[in-house]
Amino acid sequence: MQDRMTLSQFSSYVFINFFNTINSHWDQANDYLTTEAEVYQWLDLMSYHGLLLDQQVKALKQEAFHTKKIRDFRDQSRSYFYSKENEEEFTHMLSEWTKGSLQFIFEQGALVPVPLKGGADGLLALLAYQMLHHKEAGIWEKISACQNDDCLALFVNQKGRRKWCSMDVCGNRMKARKHYSKKKAGQASE
After folding, report:
1. Which residues lie across from 23 on neighbouring strands?
2. Cβ(46)–Cβ(20) under 8 Å?
């Protein structure tokens, strides 16, 4: 999974990486959170890249992960960011996830949330907090879906001009398709 997660959909935002644990390859959806082992791999990858601290991962690993609950939360959150409808209802749901579920420690010069529960409940509380924190910072308005119809990735479009999750992957594919279509149309008219 580490190789798959380091491609176009890898982000400096934990919740975006969480959303992108489902992607499309050869017109087939691939879900990378179907087993508890995959959740552990994802957590380790986030820790490796410094997006989750050791204290957060240690707290999360204290209980078993119910992957259906995690996938349902991910899918519901992805749906919101695709439609951007019912914001008040969505933020209320996220707020409910954080109630009584987090403690805060001062680490590396910042206030850091650490789940009080392990497993799915702790992970979802932590992700809900991070989403709400980034809403306050104005990041939600910058979240975009990749314009490659075959890609399911979401990304933070900082400058508002980006079309694809990655120029190296989806951008090049889309440009190649466009070039091939023009070339084919030109040959057909000759």
Report:
1. 30
2. no
